[in-house]
Structure formats: structure tokens, C-alpha cells
Amino acid sequence: MADYKNFAVDVDDDGIALVTWDMKDRSMNVFTEEVMDELEKIIDQVASDEKIKGAVITSGKETFSGGADLTMLQKMLGIFKAERSKDKEKATRLLFDNAGRMTWLFRKLETSGKPWVSAINGTCMGGAFELSLACHGRVAADSEKVAMALPEVKVGIFPGAGGTQRVMRLADPQAGLEMLTSGKSLSPQKAKQMNLVHEIASPDKLIDTAKQMIRDGLKPVAPWDERGFKLPGGPVYSAAGANLWPPAIAFLRRETAGNYPGATAILKCAYEGLLVPIETGLRIEQRYFTEIMQTREAEAMIRSLFVSLQELNKGARRPEDVPASKFKKIGVLGAGFMGAGIAYVTAKAGIPVVLLDRDMSAAEKGKSHSDNLISDAIKKGRAKPEDKERLLSLITPTADYAELDGADLVIEAVFEDSQVKKGATENAEAVLKPSAVFASNTSTIPISSLAQNSKRPKNFIGIHFFSPVDRMMLVEIIMGKKTGDKALATAIDYARAIKKTPIVVNDTRGFYVNRCVLRYMAEAFQMLIEGVPPAMIENAAKMAGMPVGPLALTDETAIDLAQKIMKQTIRDLGEKAVDKDQFALINTMVDTHGRLGRKNGKGFYDYPPKPAKKKLWPGLKDLYPQQDPDKIDVGELKERFLYVIALEAARVMEEKILVDPREADVGSILAFGFAPYTGGTLSYIDGIGLNKVIKHAKHLQKKYGAQFKAPKLLVDMAEKGETFYTRFDPYKDQTKKAA
């Protein structure tokens, strides 16, 4: 056999070729043009060599493959855009042909005349699972490290290399549609239950089991290529089909509000593909994939939720000349809900952590939070009993600041009070080594003012976590006026160690995320005052793509907290800084009706005992005269939510609180779920076009208020024909270096 850069091929005495995929220059195998070229040569050689009876494909890494390299799709789109300006028809044909490369490569393997078995030894995602589905046999290792999925819908596209056709010809149609439209991962057991893998083997017997399938006479023909093949759920035009497809369409509409063209395309591909032979079905899939690749949603989601997210996770904003941090010990001040959560994620990352509070009882209570979280994970099968012992052994509860001696980083998460934080800072610095970094987890108090309590402001920084810490994937790293590169590098290294995505924010009231979230809530308060029915407010927000309605979100964070923020803002900036009608609404909710939010079981919603579900408080409609719902423009309600947040993000960029559009986009999606199909706050503006945004913002401003006034930055960018990704190009420094 020939030598390959990305594969090794060994033929045993039984004539079975073991094809081991192992990209030397990557930590994970991915499909690139070079990989596809090599795989095609291997398929040809296996098919043409009479001595080879069949082939097993596996991975030389712990994971099988992450699927296609989405930067390859970005490149494909770039070529399409360049060609479209010259010849649109030719450009579309080129995109269609490129989109079908993997499809027909896998079909070539499937019809090669020799049996192929996929031996799945680890994570197998996207195109890699589509490759496996094209193999005649599939064996998965019985390991927690094995997960199979077709997650493309999460980045705006869909499984376009045969996934929609083969899954629906193998699995129960309802389960298949759920898997395809959700992008959820499957365990080996679940995949076997769905008929997507044939065997589950212990990791050490994986290859032997795969080879045995070939020795036992595995047919080199897919089920759908045999005469008499019948679909698992019966024909589309049948009683079973009539019970599946209309509800499936309605369910998808309910879940996505039509915002995700990729998800809609999955239903179209599956429905139309099941009416025709497999090759025609693959052509249908290829056609829809070409169409979806041209959508604004696909371009924005691939950029933000794959490319930008990866770059930020790898430390795109980290100062290059600072040595990497190796954390031997981390301190957490404050063992309340937030501090306990920080201790948990730190210990989960394998880092020893000292959890300090005013007395041992409080500190021990904080540690018990970790006990509860890991115990719950064990019950759900996401952790093992030995994981609990290891994690808890890394957390040292204490009331003695001397225990912080030797810590590389201390994170203060005490009560949100300047004087309390001042005392914690001074007590900690008294025992810390000079090189240690001190970070404050504050959501409201400017970092520069807190840094005045420090003897070494260069090593003082903000790390703003979101609640609950164990589930929220974003952290805001806040730079004070005197914060140095070492503190920034340390904070980013820590975020990466605990597997959180960091965004770097310059100091301001509310930083980035809270400024946007407060705008979202405030617009809902304004709608209530206008007499928009509460249910319309919540539903319009969800239809716009937000995961949680603004009233429900306010309940989660607490209405009395909103009141405290308003009162503090008035003290700091004057009465005009807060809308008096909205302030009156919040005061009425808290002071008159005692409705504080979920924490006391009554807020904008009522929270009855479980299993009953929350429901909007009926008294809301009595606070203000109600408008006729039939006369309210739901489309405009949706736009108000998206515009008010996006315009605030633009102001943050104008004020240089954020300097990188990737952080604005990724941060808005990870922190509060800003309509992911838009690609994030700034991609939303770029996608619509600045001139259109400014024009519509003027309309909304005239009708609803100054919150919709377009910042001068947008006007300047529009005049110059710029976008956020050209004006604030995150790659310009790299381009200069390359030149």
C-alpha cells in the first residue's frame, strides 16, 4: 500500500486492511481536502486489490474525529462570494460541486464492492459519523469517551454528506428526526438502540470485533441498495407517515420559530429523500446544502459558534510574551453560591482550591455544594464515584487567610459591597506572594475602584462569572486602568483551564453582558407599561430567538435586585439615568405586592409547588390598561428586543469597552442566548446592513424612545461602507506579521 500523510494502512494475514486515521499536525482528526484526497485513493486501492477482503477504519487518537474542518466551509463560501460577482450561475454550480465532495466520496466507499467497517473508538462527530454510516458495519467502543452526533444544525447548517438520508433509512423516523434537528450526542448504547451501530465492544476488543464482522461475511452492500428494502417507519405516504410528518413540522416551528433554515432543510431533505432512491435522495440533500450554505444564518453561525469560539478558547486575546501559568493552588474568598460554584469548577479541572469564608461552618457549607453537584452527576451517569473522592479532596474549606499562602490566583466572590471586598482584598494580599494575581468576581462595581484597595493594582483584575457557574460557559475578564499583561494572561489561562470561554472587557458600569441584559429587561418593562399583554411579550422574545423571556429572566435574577440596581444607578448618576415609569413598575412589584421573583415563589410569574409549571401572574394585566392583541405588530416586538440589545453592543464597541467583534458576538450568545441564528449582536447588525439598521433604528426611536438611537459609530461606519468585522478586524495584526 502507498504511504499517506494522514492515514496508515496495514493488511493482515486474513486480507483485512486496517486504515488508521491519525493527523500528525492536529490534536483531533478532521476532514480537509487533503484527507479526502487520500481517503479516495485508499478506497480505490482497497477496491482494486484482490488480496484485500475488506477494510476497517479507525482512529489513532483518543477521539475518532470531529468531522469536517469548518474553516474549509468558510473558504468554500469565500470562493463562492468572489465568483458570484462575476457569474452567479457558475458560482452556484461550483458551490454545489464542492458541497457534494464528501457526499460522493462516501457513496463511492459504500458502493466499492468491498465491505467496510467503522471502528469508533472515541468522539465521532459530523462528517466522521456520516462516513461511519456509509460503512457496511459499525462497531463502537463501550466507553464514556465515545459519543456520536450530527451537530451541524448547531452552527447553522445540517448533515450534508448523507446524514439525513442514511439516518432516516436506519432509525425509527421520529427518533431520527429528533437526533438530526437537535444535534444531540448519542452514547454507544443509544446508537445501537437506534440501529445506527451494529456492535458495542470493549475498547481492547474493538478492532478484533470490527475485523470479525468482515470474516463472518459482512455484505459489501448497504440495506437500501438491496432489492425489497423497506423503510423502518414505513412509507412516507402511509398511516404512520401521516402521524409523523405534520406534527414534526409543527414541533419544529414551535421550537425554532422559523429562525433556523438549516433545521427546516433537514425536514425537507428527509421527507423528499425518503420518497426516492438513495442516490436521488443524496442529490436532494446536496441541493439543499448548497442553498443553506448561502444563507446569512449559516455564515454568521459558522463564524461565531465555530471559528471565533475556537479562537477565543485557544486564547486569542492572551498577551503572547507572558509565560503560560501552571496553577498549583487557587484561593476562593466567599463560599456562597457563586464562590462555591467557582471552587467546584476549579477542583473539577484538577486544581487544588482553598475555599475561605468567615467561619468553618460557612466554608464547609460551600464545599457541600460541590458534593451535591458531583453526586448529582454520578446519579445521571456523567461521573464515577471515584471522581467524587478526587474532586472533594482538592477543596480545602477554611476561615484562615493564612491558608492562601502559596496561591497563584485568588478569586474574591464575597458580598457585593465595596467595604466587604476591601477587607477581603487587604487580608488576602497580606499573605500572598508578590507574583500572585488577585481577581474580583463583581457584576456591578468598577474594577478600577476596587483595585484602589490593592497594593499591586497591576496584578488586580476582574473575572466575572455567570450563574450557575458549573453550567454557564462564559467569563468576562475585566481590565482595570492599571491591570497588567501578566494578570490578563493568568486570568485567560485560568478560564481555559476550567473550560470556560473568556472575553476581555474594559472597565465600565455593567461591563458588557449586564448592559445588554438590562436593556432586554427594560424593553419588556416598557412594553408592560404600554399595555402589551405579558404573554405576547414573552412569546415575541422567544420567537425572536431568545431562549428565555425577559420577564422570566428578571424573575430568575430577582426583581428586588433590579430595584437595587436602579436605586444605585440613581444614587450614582441621578434620577434621569433611570426611566421613572419603569422604576415605578419595579417598586410596585416589590414594595406593594411583595413579588421578588422565583426566590420567593412570586414575581412576574407564579411558581406553584412541583410538578406544576410556572405561569404568568394574572395580576400583571391589571397594572396597566391592556392593548388589543390583534392590533399589536408582533414582528415589531421581536425587532425591538433584538435592536435594543444589538445597539447597546454597538455602544460598547464605540466606548472601547470591547475591542474585538468576536467577543461581542460569542459573549452575547453564551452569556444570555442572544438569538444564536444571527451569529451574535454585531453579526446581527452586519447581516442586516448598517444603512438599513440606522433607518429602522430612527423609526423605533421616534416611536418608542432614545434607547433605539443609533450610536455615531454606526453612522460613521455606514458612510465608509464598513462592517464591524472590517472596522475592527480581529486578524489585522496577524496579517501585518505575515506580510
Would you give an account of this structure?
By secondary structure, this protein is of the alpha/beta class. It folds into 3 domains: 7-294, 2-enoyl-CoA Hydratase, Chain A, domain 1, CATH 3.90.226; 330-509, Rossmann fold (3-Layer(aba) Sandwich); 514-726, N-(1-d-carboxylethyl)-l-norvaline Dehydrogenase, domain 2 (Orthogonal Bundle), CATH 1.10.1040.50. The chain has 31 helices and 18 strands. It has an 8-stranded mixed sheet, with helices on both faces. Strand 1 (7-11) and strand 2 form a beta hairpin. Helix 2 crosses helix 13, helix 3 (88-99) crosses helix 12 (278-293) and helix 23 (559-573) crosses helix 24. The two termini are 41 Å apart.
Distance between the termini: 41 Å
CATH class of the largest domain: Alpha Beta
What would CATH call the architecture of the largest domain?
Alpha-Beta Complex
Poorly predicted spans:
none
Please describe the topology of this protein.
Layout: E1 7-11, E2 16-21, H1 33-48, E3 54-59, H2 70-84, H3 88-99, H4 101-110, E4 116-120, E5 124-125, H5 127-134, E6 137-141, E7 148-149, H6 163-170, H7 173-182, H8 188-193, E8 199-201, H9 206-215, H10 239-256, H11 261-273, H12 278-293, H13 296-313, E9 330-333, H14 337-348, E10 353-356, H15 360-379, H16 385-393, E11 395-398, E12 409-412, H17 418-429, E13 437-440, H18 447-451, E14 460-465, E15 474-479, H19 485-497, E16 501-506, H20 513-530, H21 534-543, H22 550-557, H23 559-573, H24 580-592, E17 605-606, E18 615-616, H25 634-654, H26 661-672, H27 681-688, H28 690-704, H29 712-719, H30 724-727, H31 732-738
Parallel strand pairs: 2-3, 3-4, 4-6, 5-7, 6-8, 9-10, 9-12, 10-11, 12-13, 13-14, 15-16
Antiparallel strand pairs: 1-2, 14-15, 17-18
Helix pairs in contact: 1-4, 2-3, 2-13, 3-12, 4-5, 6-7, 7-11, 10-11, 11-12, 13-26, 14-15, 15-16, 20-22, 20-25, 21-25, 23-24, 25-27
